[in-house]
Structures are given as C-alpha cells and as structure tokens.
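> call design_seq(struct)
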C-alpha cells in the first residue's frame, strides 16, 4: 500500500503511542516514530513489526532535541505531529518534580519549535483527565475548570495545554485529547503496557498479582462517597483511544488556522475499583488475591467523562467493553511473562 501522509509520532514505542501507530498505519498513513526508549524498549518495536508486517521509520532520539525533530520532519515530509512522549507516573513526579517539568515541558516546547521551523501546522496532544482534579460535576465535560493539580505530573498536563493554546497564534491547529483511564492491549498481545518496577496503575497491578508477580492487590479505600465505597473511574480500551487520534487528526485538517480544542476520551461510564476487580475475576477465572486497604493520598473520589463533544466532533465513541479490555490486559500480561 502506498502511504498517503507521514505522521510524526513522538513516544511511538510507548503504550498509547504504539497502539496509535497501528491505527495510523491501518488507516493508510505512514507513522514515523521518535522515541528515546527511556520508558519503553525494543520489544514494542518488534511487536509493531509483527502486527504491521513492515518496519515503520524509527529514530531513537530525545524529543527535547528540536533540531533532531526538524531533521526527521523534513526527511519524511511530515504532515502532522502526534505528541505522546512524556513521563506519566504520578508518584515519580512527586518524588522528582524537576525531572517532570524538564522532560514534559521541554519536549512539548521542542515539538512546537520544530513545527514552527518546518511549517507543520497540525498537532494532536496527549492530555489527561487529571487536568480536572476532582470536578464539581460528573460526568465531567470539557468546560469544567482546572482545579489545582494534585501532582507535578498533572501540572505538566495543565501547563502543556496552556502552552499549546498560546502557540496556536503561530498558525497551528491543535487538539488536546484528555484520556480517562486507558487499559487493555492490542488483541494479538504483541504490544501493550510495559510498567517499570511496581505498577502504580490499577490494571497492571491486577494482572501482575494474578500472574503471581505481586502477592496481593490492595484496593485503596472503601469509605468514599460512591455506591460501594471504592473510587470510580472511566476505564477505556487503549485501541478505542488510539482510533480517536486518527479521527482527531482528520478533523484538524478541516479546521481553519489557529484552532484549538480539548476533548475527553472516555466511555462515559463510571466503574468502581471493586467492580473492575470483580469483572476481572469473572472474565479470566483467576482467583485474584485482594484486600481492602486505606486510601491512597491524592486520589480523586470519582471521575468519568461526558463523551458527547468528542462523539459529535470526531464521530467517534468507544466500542470495546470493560470485559474485552480486561481480557486483553490479561492476555498481554501472560504474553510478557512468556517473553513476547
Ligand atoms: N488503585 C487501587 N490499587 C492499586 C492501584 C490503584 O485500589 O494498586 C485504585 C486507585 O486508588 C484509584 C483507581 O485504582 O482509585 C485507579 O488508579 P490508577 O492509578 O490506575 O489511575 P488514576 O488514579 O490516575 O485514575
């Protein structure tokens, strides 16, 4: 297949980036990956090769290096940038805030700088529902004000959106996609999430406990003001999230210059932590060892998306069930342990 347009995917060896690479390629685009592999590794590129049957262009480089980005953009005549490359651990960002500000903000500014120099106008940015903090109304829509961020990680996402909004004055068109809780993996288990060390996120902790790598899962808090007392989130299959990126890019192409929009990427359905654990046990048949424990600092009680704006703007909505997401997450965990 002749590929119509090259799309620069920073962080394309990461969790959401790699799934988006698959969707882009299958939609007829040529994804060009820039990733320093600091939070990922060669196995993800091998997985992409197995899924796609080709090696997409890959540059092992740091996205804070604007000159390198300019070089790659020119070499491949890039039409749009999807910027995923960022650190994303809440705990690590509390322990090492400067690392987060340096990496997440510097790389965004470098990307914008490279776009300005080369004249690339379109940007799709990885944001997060963390920008809302604990919203006053749920489901939360895009007009909800930002609350003070709970962590330096969250602050980098809030700042990044502001930087992009300011930068559209340079003639850019940009869309910021606020992910809720992406989970699961590509159905063939060739790519997925590769947590470093002990996972902070719920689903990798569940699957690592199920496989015997962790002794037990602790559910953090059962005294929240929610139906079963545990926190409520909006868990969305990573392939649904990836598909939305392609739609977002195509939407941008129809927009006038200096356009900025932020969109929620969620299912619109709140699921409690306990419900998720019970669903995992039901669909996998695994006898998961879990206990109730105290609350975790900084956790938002409940948050799920109002997905109406993304549905109308992108003509997209999530289509994969929680059961499917957890089945795929479990298959991926088993594949990693076998050595993918
Ligand atoms: N959670 C939990 N045990 C864990 C990890 C997470 O009970 O080992 C809970 C956490 O307190 C939160 C929910 O699962 O209520 C989702 O946490 P995660 O870190 O995956 O996402 P986020 O808090 O950023 O939405």
């Amino acid at each position: 297949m002749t590929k119509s347009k090259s799309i620069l995917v920073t962080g394309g060896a990461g969790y959401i980036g790699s799934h988006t690479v698959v969707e882009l390629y299958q939609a007829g685009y040529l994804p060009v990956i820039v990733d320093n592999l600091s939070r990922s590794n060669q196995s993800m590129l091998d997985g992409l090769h197995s899924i796609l049957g080709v090696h997409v262009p890959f540059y092992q480089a740091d996205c804070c290096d604007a000159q390198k980005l300019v070089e790659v953009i020119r070499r491949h005549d890039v039409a749009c940038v999807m910027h995923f490359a960022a650190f994303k651990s809440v705990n690590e960002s509390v322990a090492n805030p400067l690392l987060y500000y340096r990496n997440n903000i510097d790389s965004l500014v470098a990307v914008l700088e490279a776009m300005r120099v080369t004249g690339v106008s379109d940007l799709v940015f990885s944001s997060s529902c963390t920008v809302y903090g604990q919203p006053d109304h749920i489901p939360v829509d895009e007009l909800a004000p930002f609350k003070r961020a709970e962590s330096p990680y969250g602050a980098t996402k809030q700042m990044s959106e502001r930087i992009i909004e300011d930068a559209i004055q340079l003639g850019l068109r940009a869309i910021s996609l606020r992910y809720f809780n992406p989970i699961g993996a590509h159905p063939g288990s060739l790519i997925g999430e590769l947590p470093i060390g002990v996972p902070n996120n719920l689903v990798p902790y569940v699957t690592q406990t199920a496989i015997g790598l962790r002794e037990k899962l602790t559910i953090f808090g059962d005294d929240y003001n929610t139906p079963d007392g545990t926190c409520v989130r909006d868990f969305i299959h990573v392939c649904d999230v990836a598909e939305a990126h392609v739609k977002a890019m195509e939407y941008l192409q129809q927009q006038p210059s200096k356009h900025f929009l932020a969109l929620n990427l969620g299912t619109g359905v709140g699921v409690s932590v306990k419900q998720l654990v019970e669903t995992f046990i039901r669909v996998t048949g695994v006898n998961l060892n879990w206990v109730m424990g105290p609350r975790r600092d900084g956790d938002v009680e409940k948050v799920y998306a109002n997905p109406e704006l993304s549905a109308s703007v992108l003509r997209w909505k999530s289509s994969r069930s929680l059961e499917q997401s957890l089945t795929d997450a479990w298959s991926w965990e088993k594949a990693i342990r076998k050595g993918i």
